[in-house]
Amino acid sequence: MVTPDTGFAQSILSGGRIEAIRVEGTQRIEAATVRSYMRVNPGDPFDPVRLDDSLKNLFSTGLFADVRLEREGNTLIVVVSENPIVNRIAFEGNQRIDDDTLAQEIELRPRVVFTRTKVQSDTNRVLEIYRRSGRFAATVEPKVIQLEQNRVDLAFEINEGPLTSIRSINFIGNREFSDSTLRDEVTTSEASFWNFFTTSDTYDPDRLTFDREMLRRFYLNEGYADFRVASVVAELTPDQQDFIVTFTVEEGPRYRFGRIGLETGLRNLDPETLRSEVTTEEGDWYDASEVEKTIEVLTDAVGDLGYAFVDIRPRVQRDRENLTIDIVYDIQEGPKVFVERIDIEGNTRTLDRVIRREFRLVEGDAFNTSKLRRSRQRVQNLGFFKTVTVENEPGSAPDRTVVKVAVEEQSTGDVTFGAGFSSSDGPIGNIGIRERNLLGRGQDLRLGFTLAGEATELDFSFTEPYFLDRNLAAGIDLYRTTDDRTDESGYEEERLGGSLRAGFNITDELRNVVRYTLENRDITDVHSAASLLVRSEEGETLRSGISNELTYDTRDSRFDPREGIISSLRTEFFGLGGDASFIRASATAGYYYTVFEDYTLSVRGSGGTIYGVGEDTRISDRFFKGGGAPRGFEYGGVGPRDANTNDSLGGKNFYTGTVEASFPLALPFDLDIRGRLFTDVGAAWDIDDNSIPVNLQDSSSPRVTVGTGISWNSPFGPVVVDLGVAVIKEDFDETELFSFSFGTQF
To answer: Is the pLDDT of residue 376 over 50?
Structure first.
């Protein structure tokens, strides 16, 4: 703050009243504007306090580089020196971060008042941006170019410097877990040549703060309740190119669960009826994640009993002598809180209503953490957002809460390229174009094209997930396919058709879909040496029918499930006109379970049957198994076969089963690569008795495949590789060994 010196102050404050106020030095700013910030007016005395306040007001505007007060008789003179106006801002030397990104982060803008304080602040901000991108050697020097009419051009000269990487990560004080184990638990990684796809090997202080919490959670989940990170030190190497990070930890002893109790203050609730919901058990190693899981499960269970306002808090009693931790889950009535408002931010493309209709809570409802958690999962399952954060904040009154929803949108348009190889079919390719969030309305539009040595397919589908603003998903499918089944069955098949469908949720987990299908099928180019049964079906048939599919799904994710169950039952009746009449039913089920963190075991199975109504079933309606279900067999490689021609005839019945373990690969790569071991089992059998002679080879005995595979969520899309070996098979089965696929996104 610039103030007059003592002698000047005494001269200006020597008494008397102000007769006039004269402003000098202004160029752009009106004199009346300067007077408006003054705390004195003509007629007021020369009051030192009010004059000092006037100086402070003028300086606080940021409009002036200097302000002086002078006195000429009884006239108060205000002499100002205006700060210049920014004419243009330029960034020079920046290659890694574009101008638009930097311009959005700084405070100064063209036509804004220039101050050196703002320049210094913006310089530091640009440096911070580079540091967050891992470039700690970056330098920024502001250059000011004076122009006429008190204007300036501002240029930030940037030397970006190299990426400042993490040379090594060390741990001090860890006795129970090795350095390599702890490195797997933190998100920061050491610099390596294979990390060119990630930035986790660049220094980021915020990431190190997050890593402290990751280490704390890891040790708490392993039973080390006294664990703490004493310090995290990042030292710059002498060449200033890399950092060496050192975590100093204090592990402490390992605890077991002691007594597990349940108490409640809720009327008409016996806490022992909830004992089966408790996942923590006396004698087990202490695990903080299991305590949190138990609280969530108990909250859901008590909420299902009709108690809307529940507060469950664990009372912890630590016995350091016996190394046990007693826990009492105290179930009390929580404060009565209602949802005042639901605020959504971050959805620049997706409409608000697309997100709101997935919420199990609306404004005015009683606040329920279980419903809030379920709402977040439903929004995440849309697949439109990279991250979904749902929090609640205090509302306008003690019994009101505001739900804050923050989403980060991601690409919802896919261009998928697939490729595979089988021992008999050779290469297969497909291209798919899909937009899962058309115009931000949540509508799904898909166009696919498949080209292979034995098949071509063109299909189109459109889905409106909330038809007429009701919980009813309506859609249409159109397709045209050509299948060359010469190798498997000695014929080609063309299909042209479409379907109308409508689906609705019965509960959050139970969904029903009804579909009407009209399709023309044409079996052509039947080989002269094909099975007599195949040759008898040459020509066109019209199929018209309805189907119903009931699906129960409790998986934690549709895209990468680690927990939960999915099962479905599909029934079809064709014979509503047309040439074919049959009933077909199939069922699938899958169970996913996380054995321990990031290691998942899944058990999946399916089965089906078809029955001809008043006629024999047709080859194009029966079940062809293989080509992935089970793996290790080519398409149609499992099932009835004509021994004379080796043609696959399809089965009236089938079953498949899979046991699969999925796990992260312990590779020295910071890449999202998962491995899996699997065992597949399956069979297809039985055709109708008919008068056409067929030297039938058929068996319902199980075929068994064992194999391994890897999947990688690469920057170019998912890459999947499977290797399956048929260890139990029939002599007439057709096998394949290897398959792969890859995809990308736009």
So the answer is: yes
Mean pLDDT (the chain, rounded) = 84
CA distance 64 to 615: 96
Cβ contacts of residue 285 below 8 Å, gap of 6+?
A: 222, 223, 254, 255, 256, 257
How many CA atoms, within 13 angstroms, populate the side-chain half-sphere of residue 325? Answer: 23
End-to-end CA distance of the chain: 55
- Residue 648 is given by DSSP the state E
- How many Cβ atoms from other residues are within 10 Å of residue 359's Cβ? 22
Return the pLDDT at 308. Answer: 62
Per residue in 344-375, pLDDT (tens digit) is 988 888 888 888 888 888 888 888 777 788 88
CB-based contact 665:619 (threshold 8 Å): no
What backbone torsions phi and psi does residue 518 show, to the nearest 5 degrees? -125, 125
* Closest residue by Cα to residue 308 from 362, 359, 366: 366
Q: Could you tell me the strand order of the sheet in which 64-72 lies? A: 20-24, 75-82, 64-72
Among 214, 226, 240, 234, which Cα is nearest to 161's? 240
Compute φ and ψ for 608, nearest 5 degrees. Answer: -165, 165
Whole-angstrom distance, CA of residue 482 vs CA of residue 456: 5
Contact of 408 with 355, CB cutoff 8 Å: no
Do 28 and 82 meet the contact criterion of CB atoms below 8 Å apart?
yes
SS3 of 288, please? Answer: helix
In the predicted structure, residue 667 carries a pLDDT above the cut 70: no
What values do phi and psi take at 199, rounded to 5? -120, 15
- pTM for the model stands at 0.56
Q: What is the pLDDT of residues 462-513, one digit of tens each?
A: 988 888 878 888 999 999 988 878 877 888 889 999 999 999 888 878 999 9
Say which DSSP state 623 is in.
Answer: B
Residue burial 259-274, b: 16+ Cβ < 10 Å; e: rest: ebebebeeeeeebeeb
Q: Would you mind telling me the total number of residues written for the chain in this entry?
A: 746
Contacts of 633 (CB under 8 A, 6+ apart): 625, 626, 627, 703, 705, 726, 729, 733, 734, 735, 736
Count Cα atoms within 13 angstroms, Cβ side, for 398: 3
Helix H or strand E segment including 714 = strand 703-714
What CA–CA distance (Å, rounded) separates 195 from 199?
A: 7
Sheet with 242-250, side-by-side order of all strands: 165-172, 242-250, 228-236
- In this structure, which amino acid lies at residue 89? I
Q: And the tokens for 538?
A: 């040459």
411 phi-psi bin (left φ>0, alpha ψ -120 to 50, beta other): beta
Phi, psi (5° rounding) for residue 506?
-80, -45
Which two tokens mark 612? 């001809």
Task: Please give the distance of CA 143 from its chain centroid, rounded to a whole number.
Answer: 43
With a cut of 90, say whether residue 702 has pLDDT above it. yes
Q: Which residue has the higher pLDDT, 651 or 192?
A: 651
